[in-house]
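Sharing a chain and its predicted structure for anyone who wants a worked example. Both blocks are below, sequence first, tokens second.
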Amino acid sequence: MSNQAGTIRMLLVDDEAGFVDVMSKRLKRRDVQVTPALSGAVAIQILRKHDFDVAVVDLKMEDMDGIELLSVVKKMVPEMPVIMLTGHGSEQAAREGMEHGAFDYLLKPCELENLMAKIHQAVGK
């Protein structure tokens, strides 16, 4: 599923620019090609033009929440796994994400190793 040399192509959607910047740099060191999107609307525009192996989506964003974005993504690219991130400890919302087709969810802040394990699990599926 991933492209040349096993690089994983990931769409990272979160409206916290600092988080996206740090996470992108850390993931790139682990052979993940990260395309950041700072809003759900931007993520949808990017998805129209590019293919990804996995998406990591924040649950709580300003323009649209992660569940709304997940629903759109699942219509556009049903086979792409989506991992939800929630920084609000909202287990209920995360479970709702699973009901809408999310691959899994992690609580923010999440350990990079946990995220990498989840990404490899999703892509290897």
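Comments welcome. The longest helix spans residues 112-124.
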